[in-house]
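Chapter review: from sequence to fold.
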Amino acid sequence: MPRYAQPSPGNVDAEPRDGNVDAEPKDGNVDAEPKDGNVDAEPNDGNAEATPDDGNADPKAKGAAADPTREKVEQLLRDAEIETVLHQLDGELIALAPVKTRIREIAALLLVDRLRRELELSSNRPTLHMSFTGNPGTGKTTVAMKVADILYRLGYIKQNKVLAVTRDDLVGQYVGHTAPKTKEVLKRASGGVLFIDEAYYLYRPENERDYGVEAIEILLQVMENERENLVVVLAGYKDRMDDFFSLNPGMSSRVAHHIDFPDYTVDELVLIAQMMVRNEEYELGPGAEEALREYLERRMQRPLFAHARSVRNALERARLRHANRIYEGTLEGMLPTREDLVRIEPQDFLKSSVFGLDRHDDEPTPSVDDAQA
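The token string follows.
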């Protein structure tokens, strides 16, 4: 019998354990036999790098590195800087938490819609016309400007601008005058935001010959047909705006976002005053803040109170009295120090007509152009 026909007594491991003769190495090299008996695990070319050493590779990491979606999202977030605008809104406006929340929600909607369009997902342009309701001086104009900034950064308007108008800018005084006026305003506002203050004055049902209806009809057409080129914000007192929308359902149906601006409290108005004083590089001297608070409490009970605007007017009057004090002191040979020039004293508020100490009225009747802010 040939020697190779009988297994060597000391080489029993070379015999295949499952009886499969194909698994037996032809050269008698026992190292060629896979240690786990799995022939598929044997590398064909001896290249150990063909199989991961630890088998612990993260498939998500591989996909993220090759996914262009991630790069588009990151690029849009960097370019838009929406959070920067929202932080500015928080810093520039005291309180108004419901308003800020709503603006943040609108910004999130627009951002996600823009991302969907970038990734070629189905996306219809959101309706962006808005209604801002509230008393004068509650921040409506300021918020409108921030909304325009957000719309511009995300590509929903072509220019970062707000054109504020009233009825007088839109409605003519005779037949054939209204349409050209309204169209001229729309042309100037094109590509940005049109802010119509006290919009309810456009419609005067008690006057059959009023031309405001013609302006409303033109506005309705533009709000529907040119939504991609113009955003309209209608502003005014809440009760009057509610009546306006009930009498003009076509206008109401085209406004997607109704935002109500709450009144400020006395504490919030004092905070607003402090911010204004700092911005103008003035200071409130000892007792001046208490005098201002008392002024505001009295002023809020009088007609035509305009919240933040009334605060601004009060500070302007206080600056006038402060300047007059400094000037009269110089006439008596007292040169002002730096501290004198920046410090507003209690008497600068207490001389207001609100306290009945002089004849000057701190709050003149607001003009039409200054009716909402």
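Two observations follow directly from the output. Residues 159 and 192 are 5 Å apart (CA to CA). The first strand starts at residue 130 and ends at 134.
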